[in-house]
């Protein structure tokens, strides 16, 4: 500060996101001591009742945090005047169970300590708990985020990758969020759980000359099974396949091992196993689960702490789907 004086102070004040938020692992220890226990209890009940919750919530977390930081902007419901992030095309497939989980936790926490715990912290905490509950690493996240005052569908699309983008494009999207190629490869390991709708990979298995054969690099038997599974996908839009065909509900390094043997589901999954910039990382994580878990945990913490909203530029929403000044 000393070397650039008032000019730097002005720049810092003009860009609120540059100001460091006061995040801490025990942010709520005095103001809401029951927060963590309540969250873990509800997450556990929900995951037992609906085992797809872990994957859905992890994706919800990622889609929230990539667009202007983890600020629960994805939870805001659209109004007749404004279409919010959750109704952007890429977010329409986010599962109801993940939204329901956050609502349940928020309701329980509000009863114990009203107006204290932000929806963004609840989403981050729930994701952390679910990842380790399904076998993944313990992730030491911090709390103290505020919820956004904005949620705009137009801010979403260029921040999130699509399976059929080139690797250059995908890397540039992650880099625009200050995430390296290494962090990208570790984060995409999230595809070790959950599923994808057939439309997301249909062009790989049905289009062009490969119709009766197998898409480039895909295991032929796997391709044939996917074609059977997705035969009616245009009529039944819910048809889906597991992202990790061998251990779909377990957070492990099987995703990377699959990629090397032609069991990558999305075109982007397959591409990272063969691109010169990413191949060696896929090899590393396929061979060494601890290296994957370490890298995933670090990258997830980084994503969770980017562009955090501070006191003045956010609020603790009373309802996660509405700003506090919502007038209906
Ligand atoms: C190259 C980057 C990525 C692309 C192109 C991509 C694309 C997709 C697509 C198309 C789906 C299927 C959605 C559906 O059909 O409902 C999906 C699912 C999923 N994605 Fe990604 N994704 C990427 C990175 C990530 C990252 C970094 C994470 C988390 C850290 C993540 C977490 C998930 C999870 C957990 C699912 C399963 C969701 C469920 O079962 O409900 N993805 N992804």
Automatic annotation (TrEMBL):
Site (Transition state stabilizer): 59
Span of domain Plant heme peroxidase family profile: 22-324
Cofactor(s) of this protein: Ca(2+); heme b
Disulfide bonds: 32-113, 65-70, 119-320, 198-230
Tagged with keyword Secreted: yes
Domain of life: Eukaryota
Protein name, as recorded: Peroxidase
Species name: Eutrema salsugineum
């Amino acid at each position: 500060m000393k070397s650039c004086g008032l000019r730097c102070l002005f720049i810092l004040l003009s860009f609120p996101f540059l100001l460091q938020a006061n995040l801490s692992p025990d942010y709520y220890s005095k103001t809401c001591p029951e927060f963590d226990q309540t969250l873990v209890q509800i997450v556990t009940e929900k995951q037992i009742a609906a085992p797809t919750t872990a994957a859905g919530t992890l994706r919800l977390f990622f889609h929230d945090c990539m667009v202007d930081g983890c600020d629960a902007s994805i939870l805001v419901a659209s109004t007749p005047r404004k279409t919010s992030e959750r109704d952007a095309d890429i977010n329409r497939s986010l599962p109801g169970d993940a939204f329901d989980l956050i609502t349940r936790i928020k309701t329980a926490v509000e009863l114990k300590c009203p107006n204290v715990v932000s929806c963004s912290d609840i989403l981050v905490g729930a994701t952390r708990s679910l990842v380790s509950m399904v076998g993944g690493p313990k992730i030491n996240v911090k709390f103290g985020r505020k919820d956004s005052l904005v949620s705009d569908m137009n801010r979403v699309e260029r921040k999130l990758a699509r399976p059929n983008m080139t690797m250059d494009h995908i890397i540039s999207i992650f880099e625009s969020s200050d995430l390296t190629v290494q962090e990208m490869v570790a984060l995409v390991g999230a595809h070790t759980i959950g599923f994808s709708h057939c439309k997301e990979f249909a062009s790989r298995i049905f289009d062009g000359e490969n119709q009766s054969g197998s898409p480039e690099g895909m295991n032929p038997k796997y391709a044939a099974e996917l074609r059977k599974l997705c035969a009616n996908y245009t009529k039944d839009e819910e048809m889906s396949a597991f992202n990790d065909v061998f251990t779909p509900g377990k957070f492990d390094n099987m995703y990377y091992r699959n990629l090397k043997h032609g069991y990558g589901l999305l075109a982007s999954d397959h591409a990272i196993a063969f691109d010169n910039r990413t191949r060696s990382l896929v090899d590393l994580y396929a061979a060494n689960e601890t290296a994957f878990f370490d890298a995933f945990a670090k990258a997830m913490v980084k994503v969770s702490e980017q562009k955090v909203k501070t006191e003045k530029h956010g609020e603790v929403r009373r309802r996660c789907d509405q700003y506090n000044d919502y007038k209906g």
